[in-house]
Amino acid sequence: MEGVAWRAGGWPVVEDIALHIREGETFGLIGPNGSGKSTLLRLIAGVLTPAAGMIRLDGQAQARLSRRCAARMVAFVAQQAETSERVTVRDAVELGRTPWISMLAPFGGRDDRVVTRALQQVGTAALADRYWHGLSGGERQRVHLARALAQEPRILLLDEPTNHLDFIQQLSILRLVRSLGVTAMVALHDLNQALKCDRIGVMQRGRLVACGPPRDILTPDLMARVFDVRGHFVTDPTDGHRFIRFTLPEV
Ligand SMILES: Nc1ncnc2c1ncn2[C@@H]1O[C@H](COP(=O)(O)OP(=O)(O)OP(=O)(O)O)[C@@H](O)[C@H]1O
Questions:
Q1: Distance of CA 4 to the CA centre of its chain
Q2: Co-location of 194 and 70 in the same domain
Q3: Which range is the signal sequence, renumbered to this chain (predicted)?
Q4: What is the model's pTM?
Q5: N or C: which end of the chain has fewer CB within 10 A?
Q6: How far away, in angstroms, is 31 Cα from ligand 1 center?
Q7: For residue 222, with 0-12 CB atoms within 10 Å meaning exposed, 13-18 middle and 19 or more buried, which class applies?
Q8: What confidence score (pLDDT) does residue 251 get?
Q9: Domain that includes residue 250, residue range
Q10: Nearest CA owner, ligand 1 atom 26
Q11: Do residues 206 and 227 share a domain?
Q12: In this structure, how many other beta carbons lie within 10 angstroms of the beta carbon of residue 251?
């Protein structure tokens, strides 16, 4: 994307974003509350239209793609995604197949297998016959991810996917995304999770202020400037794993 901007009531929410996401990479989008992460994801998902600039999906101008083509390419799991209350979990995940079915190619055996696999991948197979309205927040989050996987997208956009998830799901979600081999852009608040991404982009007040491999980008200086926290790397003596420890700035 080049020069991408979006405004609300005349105020810039995202400004002049130039970014190239590489095929197959897991790209983490980080930044403080209100820095424009969700807005940028919604622009790429086509939920919002840029006020300026150009977004290309797989080399093609997003604005020129039909809804169906775009939906085959991009799946988006929003922060507070809703689904009609009266559907079962399996029905909700089957909706992910919509861009692939038509009068000439009705829902068939392959679609059924894709849905079953998606339910299994996020550990929701046992919920398949439950009604959406009876699910917990974390269960809903996982079902939305299953719906997105059933879409078999080239590009997966996830807005804070670890919200509502219990510990094991939080730890496993990025591994799952990476194992799929799709291009993924994931808005994250947990900077230790961001360390697991191939590259990260840092948003601040609507602008992309840094982009690159997480260990190069997440310096103590950047964490202080952008997040207003003291962050430094520590090493776990049991396995040598490095992670970031945060403290409030000294007053
Ligand atoms: N439709 C809108 N109308 C007015 N202001 C908006 C609109 N959408 C977003 N904003 C504002 O734009 C800014 C960026 O919002 P956005 O949701 O993209 O941030 P974010 O980085 O995803 O934040 P968070 O980490 O809190 O989810 C915020 O100040 C928000 O209030």
A1: 18
A2: yes
A3: none
A4: 0.94
A5: C
A6: 12
A7: middle
A8: 61
A9: 219-251
A10: 33
A11: no
A12: 3
Find the 13 Cα to ligand 1 centroid distance in Å: 7
Verify that 207 and 223 share a domain, yes or no: no
Note the pLDDT of residue 227. 97
| Residue nearest atom 27 in ligand 1 by C-alpha distance | 33
Q: For ligand 1, what atom is nearest to the CA of residue 206? A: 14
Low pLDDT (below 70) residues in the chain: 81, 251
Give me the helices (H) in 80-213, please: 89-94, 109-121, 137-150, 167-180, 191-194
The Å distance, Cα 98 to ligand 1 centre, comes to 29
pLDDT at site 128: 96
Tell me the CATH number at 135.
Answer: 3.40.50.300
- What is the predicted pLDDT for the residue at 144? 92
* Structure token pair of residue 128: 């398949």
Contact partners, residue 244, CB within 8 Å, separation at least 6: 191, 192, 195, 218, 223, 231, 232, 233, 234
Residue 152 and residue 114 in contact, taking contact as beta carbons nearer than 8 Å = yes
